[in-house]
Amino acid sequence: MIVAERKPIEEIKGFLAGHKRILVLGCGTCVTVCLAGGEREVATLASVLRLSGNQVEENTIERQCDAEFFASIKDLASSCDAILSMACGVGVQMVANVFGDMPVYPALNTMFCGTNDGAGQWSENCLACGDCKLGIFGGVCPVTRCSKSLLNGPCGGSVNGKCEVDPENIECGWQLIYDRLKTLGKLDVLAENAQPRDFSQTHDGGPRKLSREDVAQL
Amino acid sequence: MKSGSNLEKVLEAGEFAVTAELGPPKSADLDLIKKKAEILSGWVDAVNITDNQTAIVRVSSIATGKLALDLGLEPIIQMTCRDRNRLSIQSDILGAYLLGIRNILCLTGDHQCFGNHPTAKHVFDLDSIQLIQMVKNMRDEKVFASGEEIKNSKKAEVKEPRMFIGAAANPFADPFEFRVIRLEKKINAGTDFIQTQCIYEMDRFAEWMRQVCDRGLHKKCKILAGVTPLKSAGMARYMRDQVAGVTVPSYYIERLAKADDPKAEGIEIVTEQIQQLRKIEGVAGVHIMAIEWEQKVPEIVQKAGLKREA
């Protein structure tokens, strides 16, 4: 899922100066699951803003990344003079797109694509590089899990399974890859030199688009 | 000869090579570069010029390398993947070659979080192994990373940069069993010589060298063993506790703690280490990393009995 966390309240209040009536808009998908921008977080933020004197409406739609889910809130939105989106950055931009003449502000910082590792813990696991190599590396992503995205790791900074960048919190992705491939009896894979990556398939090639004719024809 | 560098000649002749390190200053201080170069000149076969070492901005390794060359000292320019993409690295290699630089050490590079610009974006377009392969392809296949020939136009002559290619190895990082495989990957990519991380645990290093020799890797590239003289017990503890992949046995720390003159004791220890290293099969030379202590290199070289002229 896309993992996000709420911005500091002062930063959010800073956006809202001069606005009379605000719609706090939650999203029912990823940010609901990671407890950053679902119905409950919308209610909490709306209460805080009311206490500081703002007139606040609240609503949560199924998904802010898809235009078709906005129909139900059109009237509510037009009764406000700004929208505070509690979605990820994708949702915020869709709100701006759908409500072309209304100011929209982000209430969250979008962090990463990651896993839930237990109560209040999330980890980054995918950089959406567009060229998945998990099949080679035993199901552990070197692009994401190595601090330097090395394809021929580990570097000299791997000690006791930890990454030197933050030995308390970051596991060495290459130790994980090594351990997995050892378990799978596939250590020979690591003897091969991985070639330089094709960054034209990533954001370095420009904002990516995906067109699928099979879906378009349905 | 691949590059014709002095270091290549020494190693090919089977002489025990001596390299040292010259850290460029963190300011536009020409005098400091001259001072360090003058100290080392005549005592070593080549000197590594570090590349924004530990992610701290310093005078560029190529510029410092050119200055060292003009002062009679053969440079090995270090090149990290942290600060440059493949375009920039190839452009710098062409430029370095034209300035007379013939040795390059290909490194991944320390993470920027350790340096003085922790908010910077890192690059790592390539990793050290891919960098080695690229420099080798430039030299031997005469092509850029894209596969394009190294010539200025269709009709122009091919003019490739011919570098003697080095890489680093850390026998002490984890996973230990993978360290020799990683060395082999660097050799397969085309490295001509290896300089190791500084060695204190001689037994563990000897075990690693045994693995290296068992695979015949010492015959495919020259291995220079890294040493760093310790100035005090405090420095030894710092190296042990703060530098990833470095272990310092307690007997060295005790020796330094008890010594009346810890610096002299540190020189004594490194001299002993060099003599031990010379006896290990497959060790083709020594790389003396005297961190901000370049002035001691001549003394170490003399005391260790490495034949050099003053």
Verbal overview:
The complex is a heterodimer of chains A (218) and B (310). Helices cover 27% and strands 22% of the residues of chain A. Chain A has 218 residues and is an alpha/beta fold. Chain A folds into 2 domains: 2-111, Rossmann fold (3-Layer(aba) Sandwich), CATH 3.40.50; 127-203, no CATH class. In chain A, the strands form 3 sheets. In chain A, strands 3-2-4-5 form a 4-stranded parallel beta sheet, with helices on both faces. The model of chain A has no long low-confidence stretch (mean pLDDT 96). By secondary structure, chain B is of the alpha/beta class. Chain B has a single domain (6-230, 280-295), classed as TIM Barrel (Alpha-Beta Barrel), CATH 3.20.20. Chain B is 40% helix and 15% strand. In chain B, strands 1-2-3-4-5-6-7-8 form an 8-stranded parallel beta barrel, surrounded by 6 helices. The radius of gyration of chain B is 19 Å and the shape is globular. Chain B starts with 5 loop residues before the first helix and ends in a 7-residue tail after the last helix. Chain A binds chain B through residues 147-161, 164-166, 172, 175, 178-179, 187, 190-191, 193-197, 199, and chain B through 81-82, 86, 108-111, 113, 122, 124-130, 133-134, 145, 168, 170, 173-175, 178, 181-182, 184-185, 188-189, 197, 244-245.
Q: Which spans of chain A of ≥5 residues are poorly predicted at pLDDT below 50? A: none
Tally of DSSP β-strands of chain A: 9
Predict the CATH topology of chain B.
TIM Barrel
CATH level 1 class label of the largest domain in chain A: Alpha Beta
Gyration radius over CA of chain B: 19 Å
Briefly say what this structure is.
The complex is a heterodimer of chains A (218) and B (310). With 218 residues, chain A is of the alpha/beta class.
